[in-house]
Amino acid sequence: MPKELDEEENWILAKIICFHDKVREYEVEDIDKMKNEKHGKQFMVSMKNVIELPGPGGYLQEFPRSHRVIALYPNTTCFYKASIIIPPSKQNIRTQYYLISFDNDNDAVRHVDAQYVLDAPNELK
Question: From what superkingdom does this record's organism come (predicted)?
Fold first, then answer.
């Protein structure tokens, strides 16, 4: 879900608490907790701002080279715009990781678990 409504549309890793049918919005909790907090910050977000992650053992769509995605930046709980450098099936070893280049990351190539690589919403491509 977008962390804030800004032009960058930063997306965070969050847990769905419940769905409020009357207003058609999800209540979600940021999984990034501050020290000494039991729970992360909670947000109400529209259905269009929620992208479900595949569960363990679930179907993982493979994206081709240069495909625009949002991916979980290593060691954070934020998703950022990125491009696929090498998908898992094109690497020399059997892996569930993509090699990805994040926008504005000095052309660094990073490993990201396939579970946290999602097709970019159309407005972010």
Answer: Eukaryota
Report the top-level CATH class of 11-49.
Answer: mainly beta
- Phi, psi (degrees; rounded to nearest 5) at 5: -85, 85
CA distances from residue 78 to 23, 51, 71, 81 in whole angstroms, order as listed: 26, 13, 8, 10
In single-letter form, the type of residue at position 6 comes to: D
Secondary structure class of 122 (helix, strand, coil): helix
| 115-125 pLDDT, tens digit each | 999 998 877 66
* Portions of the chain given CATH number 2.30.30.140: 68-124
Closest to 17 in 3D by CA, of 1, 35, 36: 1
* pTM confidence score: 0.82
Please tell me the distance from the alpha carbon of residue 95 to that of residue 89, in angstroms, as a whole number: 7
Query: By the 8 A CB rule, do 29 and 17 touch?
Result: yes
Bin 66: left if φ > 0, else alpha if -120 < ψ < 50, else beta.
left
